[in-house]
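Sample intake sheet
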Amino acid sequence: MHRRYNLIPLLLLLLYGPLAALPGAGDHPVQARLLATVDAVVPGQVFNIGVELKMEEGWHTYWSFSGDAGLPIEIAWQSPDGYTAGPLQWPLPSKYEEEGGLTVYGYADEVLLAATVDGAGGLVVGDTLYLAAEVSWLVCRELCIPGDTSLALALPVAKVNRSSAHQALFDRYAARVPGALDERVELNFTVRGTRDLEVELGFTRETSTFSAGEQIPEFYPQAADDFEFSTQRIRPDRLLLSLKPYGDTTIDSLRGVLVYRANGQVEAAEVVLDLRSALQAGEGGPGLLERDFNTIGDKVVRSLWVYIAFAVLGGLILNLMPCVLPVISLKILGFVNQAGEDARRVRQLGWAFCGGILATFLALALVVLLLKGGGEQIGWGFQFQYPGFVMAMAALVFALALSLFGVFEILLPGTSGEMGGLGGREGLSGSFLNGVLATILATPCTAPFLGTALGFAFAQSPFVVVVVFAAIGIGMALPYMVLALKPAWMGWLPKPGPWMGWFKQLMGFLLMATVLWLLWVLGNQVGVEGVVWTGAFLLGLALACWVWGQWGSFLHTGRSQKIARVTAFVLVAGSYGLFLHPLLAVEQEMAAVDGNLADELDWRPFSIGGVEELVANGQMVFIDFTAEWCWTCKVNERVVLSQEAVRQRFTELDVALVKADWTNRNAEITQLLRAFGRSGVPLYVIFPAGRPDSPLILPEVITAELVLKKLEEAAAIAGEISR
């Protein structure tokens, strides 16, 4: 990649070089001149010379390391014997993002590249010192043009040194040349990986306040021809560097310029990071992914029956999850509508609904086993990590809501048209499909006990996976099994009446709220533009449902029904082709900023190396394993973590807050969840300072009191090790 890009300027040199030398080829966008800090040279004294390049607006030249494209400016000095020019002094460049995702480093408007000349030559007063420079460069805007020139300067040799009018220009650019790192600044970094490396670089200085600005903090590599390089700003005092070597290259060290803002001043310093030594130093103990936190103390009960009981309880609690309530309520509405029917018929419908739940859980178990067999890192709710699935669920729930509002009737197999289909007089297949839908809507939720059971199951044999998933299905279906076994108990339910129509429409509004939630999840996966195009598809779907409802029902002729159904199909297919298919083909993922109260906390992005370094450096770490599609996670963040008492205690204990966002697939987060015996989110873990082997694991549903209690326990554990 990188090497291929740098061939482009070489080809341009061959193409444009002869043209640039022809008379009438046009003015070049770069003008160069040779300058000195003195008007006269005193024998034995040093002075500075430099080449000034002025670029027209919109053009830029390149730094000593040009980046993913371009060529650096080159200067070859020519001087008489005894007068030697030192190395070039490169001012701090700017960072540019060019088309195609290329990152380059260079200069716009103007730049002065200076060098120090040793004046210990053989010239005497009255002589003339002749200096020359051969300069070449590449200047780019929409296209790149090479340039070169020969510059000359004649300076008289005199007894008295006379400063030139260019001294201020030299001083200004000398102040921009990165120097040695301030001895008061302390660097700390950790390195992870074997071939591809991830370097988390932090810097500290007492009595200094670091702040972030445009392109600050930043790290500019001074040599990265053998690997792909990228940076990510984590905090004003922390960077994450990614190094991906080409071929069989081994990266032992990284040389570059660290740019940061301290106390309002921009600082730049040359640094060298010994990556190989850092890797070897980190081999002394197991990393987080190598630890098995399931074996800590006696927290884990090893009996399979206990995990099965947890699975049943967790499945039972899933019925109370907000995303499932509309479908469950409609099922209860169906029970009410059928209360006067034969007990045998009611029993059959109840068992069909339970069968839909169990069949879906067993199908999920099969999918999990197939993906695990293919080497995939997955967990509970994994299907919501795919934008296409979220879009499909939003469309399905949206259509169900329109049906409840009376726009059209969803004629599930075996469902009569009374009361608008869903929630009306069901057939066996309709009841079964309602159970399937309820289960799918339940999968992004993790109820108490469910995370522990699933975490155990995902690490076990296929037989145990199937047994635990079946137990969750039994737990979720348990209330409806009871009603199927005891149809007489439905006498406790309200009698059928006009309220059922109102209730059905109310459930439609709850389903619309579910659609909003799904669109919010989608926005965090594909960005705002993806939500807009999905909304356009839903508009086309709504029009198709209206056409179906107006002319596609059994009240119209067969010809009218056929035309309505074909029209509805064309509307849905056309909306998909226009709005959703291009979006899914690109799958543009972006990290959206969540503006809720919990995010006012100073959350850091998750990385294994970052957590290990923070704990090793004596800082308590709180990790929030979360996802935008996890309802329980969002409730915990808004109700618990946003409380002032919790936020204040985080600050007092100097807790590093790390957000492990599992909205999209992340293999490291999946592996660490598994290390804690979990297969999904939410999960909350506190690492006491200096104790990577003693994490405190919180349950799925947390309270402010519980978080504060665990923080105090972690502080006590850290206090023991410090004593």
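Comment: The chain has four domains: 2-177, 180-284, 304-586, 597-722. The mean pLDDT is 77.
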